[in-house]
Every structure is written in structure tokens, then in C-alpha cells.
Amino acid sequence: MGLFKSLKGKVDVGTDNPSHDQYTSPSDPPPSHRRREKEEYTNPTGPPPSHRNQNKHDDGFAPPPGPPPTHHRQDDDFLPPPGPPPKNDNPPPYHDWTVIPDTSLLPPPPALPQDYSPTNNASYDSAERAHEWCARNPVYTPSPPSHEIHLLANAGHITLESPPGPLKKSISTFRQTSPTTWLIATSKHQPDAIFLSSIPMYFACVDSPLLTERPKTIYFEIHVRRIQNDTSGIAIGYAAKPYPPWRLPGWHRASIGVHGDDGRRFVNDPWGGQEFVSAFRENESVGVGMKFEVEEVGGARGKVKTSAFVTREGRSDERWSWDIDEERDERVEGVDGLMGEGDLYPAIGVFGAVEFEVKFGDSVSWRGR
């Protein structure tokens, strides 16, 4: 408030003597206040210059006569040529979207990797421990079998090995019922565990098509007798040794598996697998096989091509097969050990209460070999 009083006082003092020509003291008003009364600073007469330029009849600013140039495009230079348009033998550039294609003629869409199974999932801790275990225990180097061992494997005279330590406490039945069959049963407390054969069914050193110049197929099957509930299941496939004994086939390096609780297939995939077949049923026979053959590249012998397939009740279907090296999600661990360069063993995974029979050789119901 003191500041405004001071300024007001200065204006009052300055108006007592408006005729001073020079600014002599702080109490006088600034020079701009005095100059407003001088003649040379009075407002000019008439409107500002900009108003005078708005005369639309001024010849210097009048628009050119006639319509704008764009109205003259009806001249002959812009008319279409006479007659119909030239004939075009090319097809239309776009597909007629009003025509609905017959989708039954299209191939089925590729299976997509999943993060989780809709039924049962192992823990992240179990998977992490298995990865560390695999890093400490590399896959065995293939070695040639004796002639007798090779003959036994081809005939299906194969011995199964039970999982070690605490993993076998809930196994109620584990016995060989014939040279080519085994009976296995577990209780509801059975954790994830895997049964592996003692010898391979595929010996890379003697069975590779690059050596024999003929395809090689391996196969075995199970007959499901009992699956107690939704938290029980069986998985079948193949794996290289050594393999983490508390993990199911298909979850880690050099292994494939088809899991009966959700019907999904796994190829070195510790995640949720890919949708494949329906879940296994009681009193059903389910088999899994692998075929190794030479893939020609440019008319010359190239690499081994590997495919896998599943049978139901001894029947095969092209929908139940796939190429092992097909494009998959980048998070899986690759196909090393599965392309004919490594030994592969039959593998059966279990959890919960199940009962089933394992069949090799002539005891299987599939006769496609």
C-alpha cells in the first residue's frame, strides 16, 4: 500500500506544473506524458492506411476476370479418348473378398507353443534344477553296440529301468511279464518320474540312414489300464541318456514326448508344449514312433530327416505326425541329438496313480513297420 501511495503522490505533483519542457526531478512525470500534448504527436486524420487498401474497386488489386483456371478443365485436352477402354487380359489385382474359400482344402494351422498346460504343470524350481542337472551331465557319446545287443533291441527284448531313490517309493508294480512287455502301476503320491530302457532302440553308429542308406523306424506303445483322476497321467516318448529322473520326456535336451493328461507334444520344450491329440483314455493303446531317413538336397545325399508319430488303438493318421525340425518357438532348446546323430531310448513318464502295460517288438498292435 505504501508503494501505490508514493506513485500517486508523484503524479499529483507532476500535474501542478505540466509546462516544464525537461525532466528535472523524480517528482515530474516521465517525458512520454508531456509529449502527448505536443502538436507533432497528434493523431493523423482519417482511417489508418490499411482501411484505404480495402477498396475492392481499385484496379491494382481487383481479381482477374473470368472463373479460376480450374474451371477450364473441360477442354478437349482433358477429355477421355473416344470409344471403350482397351481390353486387359490380366486378372484383377485384388481377390474378391465376397467369395468365401473352402477352408477344408487348406492345410491345418501350425501348432503354437504354449506357456502352460491346461491340466498339470511342474514347478519352476523343478525345471531350474533339471537345467542345472543337464549342464552337469552331458549326453552320452554314441557307441556301436555288439551284434547281439543290436538284435535284442530290434526284436523288442528291452529291459526298463525304474527311477532312482525316493522317486520309486510310490511305484506299487514294476515287473516284466514277457520278454517284450512290462507292467507298471503307481499310487496317488507318485511325483513326476521317468522310466528309461537299459539299451537304446536307435543306435546312431549302426542305424543312421547316412550309413545304411535305408530308413530306420523305432516304435513302442502302452496299453492304459487306469488313470485315477485329473492329477494323474502318463507320458511316452524318447530321450537320450542321461536324463533328469524327476522330469517327463520331451521337457529337456534330446527328448520328445506326448503327454496323456493334455494330449500335447513336447520337443525339448520345458514350457507348455503344443496342442496335438486328445488326452489318453483308460483301456486304450497309444504308441509313439520315430522315423529317420535321408533328405536329399539338390539331388545329392544331404542330412537325416526325422519325424515322429502317434498311434491310437494300432491306427495311424497323418494328423498325428510331425517333423522334428519344423519351425518352433525360439525358447525351445533345439533338436540336437534328435536328428539321427544320437542314441535314443524309450521313455515313459508318470505322475499320480496310473496303471499301464508297456509293449515292444511283436507285442505291439501297430503293424506299420
UniProtKB/TrEMBL annotation:
Q: Where in the cell is it found?
A: Membrane
Does the keyword field hold Membrane?
Answer: yes
Keyword Metal-binding in record: no
The biased composition feature labelled Pro residues covers: 79-94
Q: Which CDD domains match?
A: SPRY_SSH4_like
Q: Name one Pfam family in it.
A: SPRY
Query: What name is this protein filed under?
Result: SPRY domain-containing protein
> What is the organism field in this record?
Cladophialophora chaetospira
